[in-house]
Amino acid sequence: MRWTPRGYGGQRRTPDEVKRDGWREQRVLAVSLDDDRLTWPERELVRQLGEKLYGDRDQAKEARR
């Protein structure tokens, strides 16, 4: 049995369970570019979508400095 901190009722879900449930229930997709289950073309598609929707990661770092 997994240890659960006080204040949390029931079982805690793993990050993959949260992502799976988010997709199934709300059609929200959370994807890491480092996910080994993805092929290179799939990673590239995810990268391009992320940059289109949220901007280039490197430019965001520069803007915060």
From TrEMBL:
The organism's place on the tree of life at top rank: Bacteria
Protein name as annotated: Conserved protein
